[in-house]
């Protein structure tokens, strides 16, 4: 597969079989081979990687070849997180966001409207105002999905509907659409052996920059305070951003509730009730 997509002979496979898998080309260059599990998933990921890389801000592994079901990218040699790399990453992430997007929900050029975040479907539909768009396309679809799966009760869904109704007041000052990674949890942040961070596995789209930062905080990130300090140096966030973190975390928490069950639904409910009480 790697040979067909890259046009270069393959030496040996390394590590465990499956996807993603590390493969050595015949000259010893390590690459990663990944299978797209759903229709359009590879095209969405490739478009996202290239759109984010085009900003010239955050580093991403280069796409070496792909088709409808498989993709081959550079392998990133990883190292240890450190404060200086985290500070640089914060600066770079701010520059990525500032490179902008045509609208909230805008897909990367060449990317499909029907995209994915992890294994969950994610629709890239444009909206003019962030609170309305976020409610319609990033919160309520996953509330409905969780109810359909029995992860949320219908009466609990009403809690999220009340939060969505209050989003114009909870969202803070209006901001232009940012160029988001879209799935910026710690597992998609690779601390390179060369001291530079790379990002992988994007669910890229136009959105609010605080959403990427909120997701980065959700599952823990090494040297997080240094990342945030670097970001604030480059592009200070609007007053009250720490109080809005929970609102932006509703999207990934509800996605996890759909994919992984009740524990994440309960966490999302706690966050939603806290937003209503603020």
Structural commentary:
45% of the residues lie in helices and 16% in strands. The protein is built from nine helices and eleven strands. Strands 1-2-3-5-4 form a five-stranded antiparallel beta sheet. Helix 4 packs antiparallel against helix 5. The longest helix is centred in the middle third of the chain and has 19 residues, at 130-148. It starts with a helix and ends with a helix.
Low-pLDDT residue intervals, each spanning 5 or more residues: none
**Adjacency order of strands in the biggest sheet:** 1-2-3-5-4
Please tell me what the overall shape is.
Answer: globular
Q: What structural class is derived from the secondary structure elements?
A: alpha+beta
Name the average pLDDT. Answer: 93
Secondary-structure element pattern, one letter each: HEEEHEEHEEHHEEEEHHHH
Q: Which percent range describes the beta-strand content?
A: 15-25%
Number of helices: 9
Please supply descriptive tags for the structure shown above.
278 residues, alpha+beta, five-stranded antiparallel β-sheet, 9 helices, 11 strands, 45% helix, globular
Summarize the structure.
With 278 residues, this protein is of the alpha+beta class.
């Amino acid at each position: 597969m790697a040979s067909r997509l890259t046009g270069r002979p393959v030496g040996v496979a390394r590590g465990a079989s499956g996807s993603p898998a590390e493969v050595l080309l015949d000259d010893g260059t390590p690459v990663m081979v990944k299978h797209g599990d759903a229709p359009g998933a590879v095209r969405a990921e490739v478009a996202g990687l290239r759109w984010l890389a085009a900003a010239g801000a955050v580093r991403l592994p280069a796409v070496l070849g792909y088709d409808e079901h498989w993709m081959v990218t550079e392998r990133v040699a990883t190292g240890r997180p450190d404060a200086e790399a985290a500070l640089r990453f914060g600066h770079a992430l701010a520059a990525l966001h500032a490179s902008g997007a045509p609208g909230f929900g805008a897909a990367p050029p060449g990317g499909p409207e029907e995209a994915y975040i992890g294994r969950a479907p994610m629709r890239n539909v444009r909206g003019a105002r962030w609170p309305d768009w976020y409610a319609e396309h990033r919160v309520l679809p996953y509330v409905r999905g969780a109810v359909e799966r029995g992860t949320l009760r219908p009466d609990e869904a009403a809690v999220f509907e009340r939060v969505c109704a209050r989003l114009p007041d909870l969202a803070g000052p209006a901001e232009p659409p940012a160029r988001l990674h879209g799935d910026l949890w710690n597992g998609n942040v690779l601390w390179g052996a060369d001291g530079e961070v790379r990002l992988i596995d994007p669910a890229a789209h136009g959105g609010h920059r605080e959403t990427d930062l909120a997701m980065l905080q959700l599952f823990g990130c090494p040297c997080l305070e240094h990342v945030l300090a670097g970001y604030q140096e480059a592009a200070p966030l609007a007053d009250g951003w720490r109080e809005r973190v929970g609102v932006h975390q509703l999207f990934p928490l509800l996605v996890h509730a759909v994919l992984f069950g009740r524990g994440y639904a309960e966490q999302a409910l706690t966050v939603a009730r806290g937003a209503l009480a603020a």
